[in-house]
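User: Show me a protein chain along with its predicted structure.
Assistant: Here is one chain, sequence first, then C-alpha cells.
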Amino acid sequence: MADAKSGTNDVWEAIYTQRAIRRWTDQPVPDELIWKVIEAGTKAPSGSNTQPWRFLVIKDQETRDAISAQLRKGLENPGLQSMIDNAIKSGTKGERLMMTGARGLFENLASAPVFIVPCLYQVSSPTQDPTTLLAGSSIYQAVQNIMLAARALGLGTVMTTFQGAVDGVLRERCEIPDEAVPTAIIPMGFPDANFGPTNRKPVDEVTNWERWDVTQARE
C-alpha cells in the first residue's frame, strides 16, 4: 500500500482508495498533470464514439473565488441552512456525513488550485439531449477516468454537481457558449487529507443473480 497521500500505479489500489477529497494544500498543480488527467478522461467510451465533451480548466484565483462566493451566497438561504443544521444534528449517519462534508467543501472550495468543468458540447442526437440519462452516460465515465487518474498521480478530487447554482457566474467569467452544458465541477489539488480505504456496503448485499430477489453468498 502506498503512502496515504501518494500516487499509485496499481489500478486496483486507485479504485479502492479513491475517495472524496475536500481539503487541499496550496501546492500548485503542474499543467502536465492536468493534461494527463484530462487525457485519461478522453479515453472513456461515449455513445457511438461521439465524444460530446469539452473540459474547462479553471486556475484563475479570482474566478474560483467568484464561483465559491456565489455558492456560499446560495447557502445563506435560511431554509437551506435550517435543513443542513437539522440533518447534521438529528439526521441519519449518512445524512450527517453528507451535510458535514458539503458544508466543509463549500467553505474550502476556493482553496483547490484547479477546477475542472466537464461539459457536454455540440449535442446533436436526441439520445444525447443534455437532460437525459443517456447523455450522462457519455460524460460521467470520462469524469470517473479523470478522478481515478488524479488519484493515481496523488491528486485529490471530489465530484460536485452544484454547477447549476453557479451557472451564471461560470458562463460569464469563462465565456461558455450556449451549446456547452456544464455537467459537474471537479476541484483538484494535492490533498490535505488521506486517500481511502472507502466505507461501502459488502458487494453481496447489492448484487442479485439471474433474478432481482436472488442473492448469493460470496465464498
